[in-house]
Amino acid sequence: MGWFTDWLRGGAEQRSIEDPKYNLSESPEELLRLLGIAETQNALPIVSIEAALGVPAVFSIVAFLSRTLAALPLPTFEAGENGARVDDPVAQLLSYAPNEGETSYGWRRWHWQQVFTGGRGLAWIERIGRRPVAIWPMDPALTTIRRVNGERIYTHSGRDYPAGDVIDTPFMLKRDGLGSYSPIAKINKAISLAIAMESFAGGFFLGGGVPPLALEGPLPSGADAYRRAQNDIQRAIDLAKKSNSNIFGMPPGHNLKAVGIDPSKGQMVEARAFQIIEISRGWQMPPVFVQDLSKGTFSNTEQQDLWLAKHLIMQWAKAFEDELTLKLYGWQNPTRRVRHNLDGLQRGAFKERSEALARAIQTGQLTPNEARALEQRAPMDGGDQLYVQQATVPLVMAGAGIGHNGGPSIDDNEGDPGDN
């Protein structure tokens, strides 16, 4: 192989026997392109946000998480563990419309899309005095962040905004506390590999399932004659494809040999399935929510549902709640707090939920009004008392007669003097 290495390095010059004027070393790219390694020699495809969203797993994760978090109820409560729900102007901005041009759901969905793609979601709080009157989205790609005298300053469209007027939700902050990591940028190799495999599979099937081929046999003399023969064979293959014919003629003494690895031998299906799991790890997404049920069972699918609510949605909801409370109500003992309602994600099917609430009421763990509050229903008169089933008795009395509760017998005839 030494001559081949020298040839690639340009250290040796070899000429065609048929045509001494044709120097093989003049165009090594032709051989690299023939072997299929010219364009992909040292790099996977470059991944941008647009390119990454072309991968079904990435698109599914971003769409699922952004829509789920945007659809959560976002009410405002009085400060404290059991604070009552309030309906102030800030609550209207968060629950109904942050500004005159978009709904709360639309704004929050866009905000989370920026978090799960570019790594940061931003919004500016418009105020009259100290009172918030509107919330406007800010494009993170057009915003720069710097620190001035210890304070963060956001610059957007030539205007500076203090940190107290900007809702900032980073995916993961960098060491300086200003920049943010993009999940797409950090797992770009996993996404690039998925794109490369999809492109290879697309090219393979677009070519009718025909892999790259090498022509074996007596070759014509001269570079031009060789190119003409190669073009003739390529035209024969293309005509066979267009005519849906599985047969095309070959020159006598020639045959075609496949070059490269067969997709099945390269474990293409298994590798593409693994990339779904690998990409899901970038967002800590349970595989079942990107439609990967290859290892799903009834029990572990349900556990992944709980895992999503407890360890993913709840954490992002907490980060957003704290940011909104800080920026909308102030940092010194705020009298009100913003809090998502996650009960809808955790309560399961209606039948199971109803049975669980009924059992909690009957065993004295919840009052009826507490159970109604979990269902977002108004309290009822007399519903603040704890109840317990009256039929519960100690085990030592389980064999007692009907009606016997430790008191006098209920048999009116027992001990009647007239019976003697």
Automatic annotation (TrEMBL):
Transmembrane segments: none annotated. Signal peptide: none annotated. Residues 411-420 have a biased composition (Acidic residues). Residues 399-420 are annotated as: Disordered. It holds the Pfam family Phage_portal. This is HK97 family phage portal protein. It comes from Blastomonas natatoria.
